[in-house]
Amino acid sequence: MLFKNITILDENIQVKENMYIGITNDKIDYIGKEEPKKKYDEIYDGSGKALMSGFFNSHAHTPMTLMRGYGENMALQEWLEQRIFPFEDKLYGKAVYYGTLLGIAESLKFGIVSTTDMYYFCDDMVKAVIESGVKNNIGRGITNFTDKDIYDLDSFHETKELYNGYNNAENGRIKIDVSLHAEYTSNPKTVKQLAEYMKEIGAGMHVHVSETKFEHEECKKRHGLTPVQYLNSLGLFDTRTTAAHCIWVEDEDVRILADKGVTVASCPVSNMKLASGVCNIPLLLSKGVNVAIGTDSVASNNSLNFIEEIKFFAIANKEKRMNPTLVTPKEAICAATISGAKGQGRNDTGKLAVGLKADLIVLDLMQPNMRPIHNLTNNIVYSASGNDIVMTMVDGKVLYKNGEYTTIDIEKVIFETEKDTNNILQKLK
Amino acid sequence: MLFKNITILDENIQVKENMYIGITNDKIDYIGKEEPKKKYDEIYDGSGKALMSGFFNSHAHTPMTLMRGYGENMALQEWLEQRIFPFEDKLYGKAVYYGTLLGIAESLKFGIVSTTDMYYFCDDMVKAVIESGVKNNIGRGITNFTDKDIYDLDSFHETKELYNGYNNAENGRIKIDVSLHAEYTSNPKTVKQLAEYMKEIGAGMHVHVSETKFEHEECKKRHGLTPVQYLNSLGLFDTRTTAAHCIWVEDEDVRILADKGVTVASCPVSNMKLASGVCNIPLLLSKGVNVAIGTDSVASNNSLNFIEEIKFFAIANKEKRMNPTLVTPKEAICAATISGAKGQGRNDTGKLAVGLKADLIVLDLMQPNMRPIHNLTNNIVYSASGNDIVMTMVDGKVLYKNGEYTTIDIEKVIFETEKDTNNILQKLK
Q1: I need a labelling partner for A100 at 20 to 30 A (CA). Which of A399, B40, B312, B393 fits?
Q2: Are A108 and A400 in contact (CB under 8 A)?
Q3: How far is A383 from chain B (nearest CA, A)?
Q4: Please, which contacts does B94-97 make with residues 24 or more away whose CB atoms are closer than 8 Å?
């Protein structure tokens, strides 16, 4: 496919107008002002539209679409114990499969090309990812409230089977990360053994860190160390790591995150909605931490509207630190794209450059909310609406265009998720 | 028009499924489970859709669409002095007319049926409101840095002419409010004379109050009173009043706002983006203040995406007061509809009830981000995306449907606003 007359955000997040972008198979093979000599099968006239990298959702629990709006305005513990845990207890593979497909459909609508996920029934998630054509770093969340070795945990064996079966499958679309749920749901032996296993196989890590003040302070009481210091002391950050939230991190923690190249996945909507706090993005960026953006689950968001997430990301720190100059639009877009891809270990995507994967979105600029255009980057971050995305492409394949899906039967998915949700609710009565 | 098979949010913001809603001329004349006996010309099958009151944007400066994204991440004073004031200095009537039409188009896309506006070149705004079919409470912002009587101010005479010419024009669609810009841009004599004039003619008031801590504290230094106490002492709240922002109000202020029936227009996105603070909605509601929602101008928002504004409204206080139970979805919807209409002095709209004006929106529920539906109110507040609105109707007339406008030539409006914007930028060089 050849895009012509299109405005792009280039690899440096600079605006260029009237460009040609050529896609062959799964890669970008041309970017230029001049028409390429090579012939392309399909021409897309991009007049009044913008092309940029798709978004990388760096922390999610996709199947939790099934719990969207189920329990609101509740205190965290009450919400977990009365709503989320009982519902999850009744989950089954088919429900997770359809819940994942629903979340993928929503992701594509909002321009997400790749997600860092943590959940269970991961085989069913893998199936949905393969069929739909998106990218995903899948992690089977590991908890351990016993003194068992990890080698005696089902969740570890599921991780191992997933890794051996699917890591880098589908032309690299699927990656299997090892996923420790959190410090407070495990113990030092588990952390240490997982860190050793990861180093042995070269896998990445996905873990919740310092989401609530309570979690952060309790860890200090238990171990005399913050969660970042504790996990680092056990080697958990020795391979590529995504640490979700990091709201309550301290100065020494920030230094460790920067030194170890840990990606912080900030989830501003969920964090504000659950009253957990606001991650200090300006501080992390100033110290050289790789900062990405996550939606967290829709049970606490309650959408995968990444355009909205980017706006919250750009605005939350302005209020929190009482300074309107904090977090620039360019920093927000970088977090949503380049830094997200880096956090997923995907060095072949996240920006527009020849030779990289064609993981792209097209935005409609002829919407009243996108006009006038003093500065397109400002408009994308502060003015765009989720549905201004009119095309989402992954590995060169159009998966979403003008409200239609090419790989997902959305009516069937809505019907099946509604049926499974009602089925689970019946079991809870 | 007759809506059938549609889910509604009724006048108590309760969900009712499979309903019939009849519209004749500008009013709702039927709501029921049974098919009405009366015949309607047009039938709208509402399967998979929801019908609710349109949104009331309770604080805006609509023509500032022209300054969308013009100057970002700047400190407030620098932003005003280097960007906004110079640009506004070069404005002219035609630019305001098209800028208003662009803002109205954006408003309709995002479900806003009526706006409380403060600006100048109000004749041009009136023209755009009349042509487009929306509702607007228009106020000519009055400032006075001299010791002149208001009767010697051009802005007062413009207000008077607007009031005599257009108040309640177009079947009540247009209301002219008197608009004092703020305490810090006027003086006690001006406030007193405006309050007397308003009482004489029975007009409403629209004023900025305690938006920044600096404004609030300086007023206390100048007058020994908070802005609310000062304005109230001069009689400004003796007629229907909308006070925008009210972020820094104190306990005594809240008591006054409740006693005087003042509507507080909270603008969460603009307030967070400018780092002004977060209005204490739970406190105001608990003391009986009528709380509505505003977008403020797109120069500081930067959109009129009311669905997004409602989500910020519902979430901002959870984080600010570290309590996830604060601001319920029902409170957020009430602020966006019923309380907004009340603040505009529109007692004939803001909810679905027989005999009221048909100022309505239709939401598409077959979008992946709206499924499953555990609770529709939760999904509208936390999960909806701006463009899930597929129809906006004002006074019984469809003004927006499936991305198309019936009264606005959107391509021409985009072309003209872009031309006027460039024209103004040229003059600034």
Answers
A1: B312
A2: yes
A3: 5
A4: B94/B124, B94/B416, B94/B420, B95/B63, B95/B66, B95/B417, B95/B420, B95/B421, B95/B423, B95/B424, B96/B63, B96/B120, B96/B121, B96/B124, B96/B125, B97/B121, B97/B124, B97/B125, B97/B127, B97/B128
Domain that holds residue B22: 2-53+350-405
Whether chain A has a CB inside 8 Å of the CB on B82: the answer is no
Once rounded to an integer, what is the mean pLDDT over residues A217-237?
98
Partners of residue B392 on adjacent β-strands? B361, B400
Q: What is the pLDDT of residue B76?
A: 84
- Minimum CA–CA partner of A404 in chain B: B367
B24-76: pLDDT as tens digits = 999 999 999 999 999 999 999 999 999 999 999 999 999 999 999 999 999 88
Contact A385 B316 (CB under 8 A): no
**Residues B341-393: pLDDT tens digits?**
999 999 999 999 999 999 999 999 999 999 999 999 999 999 999 999 999 99
B72, B112, B267: which to substitute to probe chain A, counting the most A Cβ within 10 Å?
Answer: B72
CA–CA dist A195, A174 (Å, integer):
21
Residue B130 included in any domain: yes
Last residue of a domain, one of B301, B328, B343: B343
Note the pLDDT of residue A77: 86
Q: Closest-CA residue in chain B for A388?
A: B387
In this structure, are B200 and B266 located in the same domain?
yes
State whether residue A245 is helix, strand or coil.
strand
Q: Determine, yes or no, domain membership for B117.
A: yes
Same domain, B320 and B366: no
- Pair B173, B149: CB distance under 8 Å: no
Residues B387 and B252 in one domain: no
What is the domain count for chain B? 2
CB contact under 8 A, A315 and B383: no
Report angle CA A260, A265, A269 to the nearest 5 degrees. 155
B24 and B68 in a common domain: no
- Token pair of A415 as six digits: 């019907």
Comparing alpha-carbon positions, the chain B residue that sits nearest to A271 is B319
Asked whether the beta carbons of residue B418 and residue A372 sit closer than 8 angstroms, the reply is: yes
Q: Is A414 on the interface with B (CB under 8 A)?
A: yes
pLDDT tens-digit series, residues A191-204: 999 999 999 999 99
Q: Is the dihedral of CA A184, A73, A313, A306 positive or negative?
A: positive
Where does a domain end: B343, B376, B391?
B343
Q: Which of B105, B275, B371 sits opposite A368 (nearest CB)?
A: B105
Contact A273 B324 (CB under 8 A): yes
Residues of B in contact with A421 (CB under 8 A): 372, 374
Which amino acid type is present at position B227? P
Q: Do B221 and B187 share a structural domain?
A: yes
**Phi-psi domain of B59 (left: phi exceeds 0; alpha: psi -120 through 50; beta: other):** beta
CATH code (residue A36)? 2.30.40.10
* Within-domain flag for A23: yes
Q: How many residues does chain B have?
A: 429
Q: Is there a contact between B367 and A110 if contact means CB atoms under 8 Å apart?
A: no
Residue labelled with tokens 């205190």: A75
B358 and B334 part of one domain = no
Confidence of residue A270 (pLDDT cuts 50, 70, 90): very high
Is B420 a member of any domain? no
